[in-house]
Design brief:
Uridine phosphorylase, globular, Nucleoside_phosphorylase_d, binds 1-O-phosphono-alpha-D-ribofuranose, Rossmann fold, two-stranded antiparallel ribbon, EC 2.4.2.3, 7 helices, alpha/beta, Nucleoside_phosphorylase_sf, binds uracil, five-stranded mixed barrel
Length: 288
């Protein structure tokens, strides 16, 4: 295997550059959250914490919950950050950082994103837990890689592209979550399973209009009434498409569960959700 150059595998004092992590400092199951302050909320459930680090918006705590080693890491907002997080976590486990060479034996990580989202169906009230069976990417991260999308994933994307007319410059992609990981956290009365749309922004890209007019004003209605082989779109958030696509390509497993803090068709928004988020975290940790 060829040695990765300093500008390609970017390290700082032997650790991956943005996350400041090395191989001993992460577990095989990693909880990903967008908000950096949610890391402490997750690790407040741990009985021990062995490692804590922060660089920029990336905070990581590694410890144990019910005797099981777990890490929790903040990604910050957006799929551009997910590109950094997934590539660097994969490098930590699958590249020998000292020799700068890919390892022969690869490790597979489990990623569970616990986020917030906006529901896109009238019958999914704020406070629901939305579990992603797959994510439509309206961002462009996956377009820079060869992702082994399945025929079913390509068919879903094609059907969606026919249903919504997006500006020519936006090319959606679709990637499923890991079914076994998804199933492991589906047993809760507040859980609704469905398809997530990962947007490249919070306002216009999610059909929110403040002062700027929108180029696709009926985007949300189009997404809400789309269905393909019994699958419906249920929510908007900003990370899962890249998380699922890069995990698939790198041989990792990923799923997402989000607390609905907005309901777009009903016009509702929950700005203070600490208690609801704590309950969701407690549920997920108890299941994995
Ligand atoms: O609460 P988090 O995990 O950050 O998730 C959602 O909230 C942010 C937008 O407010 C985006 O990151 C979106 O995906
Ligand atoms: O409406 C919402 C709420 C949370 N996160 C999003 O990306 N959108």
């Amino acid at each position: 295997m060829e040695e990765k150059r300093a500008s390609e595998l970017v390290l700082s004092e032997g650790k991956v550059y943005h996350l400041d992590l090395g191989p001993e400092q992460i577990s095989d199951t990693i909880i990903l959250v967008g908000d950096q302050f949610r890391v402490e909320l997750v690790s407040s459930f741990f009985e021990t914490i062995e490692h804590q680090i922060q660089k920029r918006e990336f905070i990581c705590h590694t410890g144990t919950y019910n005797g099981k080693r777990l890490s929790v890491l903040s990604t910050g907002i957006g799929t551009d950050n997910v590109d950094i997080v997934l590539n660097e976590l994969d490098a930590v486990v699958n590249i020998d950082l000292e020799k700068r060479k890919e390892k022969t034996e690869k490790k597979s990580l489990n990623f569970i994103r616990i986020g917030t989202c906006g529901a896109l169906q009238t019958n999914v009230p704020i406070g629901s837990y939305i579990l992603s069976e797959g994510a439509v990417g309206l961002d462009n991260v996956a377009h820079f890689y060869n992702i082994p999308f399945s025929e079913a994933e390509n068919n879903f994307r094609e059907a969606l592209e026919k249903h919504i007319s997006l500006p020519d410059s936006i090319r959606p992609y679709f990637c499923e979550s890991d079914e076994a990981l998804t199933k492991s956290i589906e047993n809760h009365p507040k859980i609704k399973r469905g398809i997530t749309v990962t947007a490249s922004g919070f306002y216009g890209p999610q059909g929110r209009q403040l002062r700027l007019p929108l180029r696709t004003p009926d985007l949300n209605e189009r997404l809400m009434d789309f269905q393909h082989e019994g699958k419906h779109i249920v929510n908007f958030e900003m990370e899962s498409s890249a998380l699922f696509a890069l995990s698939k390509a790198l041989g990792h497993r990923a799923t997402t569960v989000c607390l609905a803090i907005a309901n777009r068709p009903n016009g509702d928004f929950l700005s203070e959700y600490h208690t609801e988020m704590k309950e969701l975290i407690g549920f997920v940790l108890g299941e994995i």
